[in-house]
Amino acid sequence: MAGLANSDLRALRARIQALESGRPGGRVMPLGLAAIDAALPGGGLALGALHEIMGAGADEEDGAIPAAFAASLVARLDGVILWCLQADDLYAPGLAAGFLSPARLVVARCRDDAETLWAMEEGLRSAVPAAVLGEVGALAPTAGRRLQLACEAGGITGFVLRRWREGGMAARQRAAPSAAVTRWRVAAAPSRDTGEPGIGTPRWRLELLRCRGGAPGAWLVTAGLTECESREERDASDHVALAAGLADRPAEIAPRRLRAG
Question: When comparing pLDDT for 259 and 103, which is higher?
Answer without folding.
Answer: 103
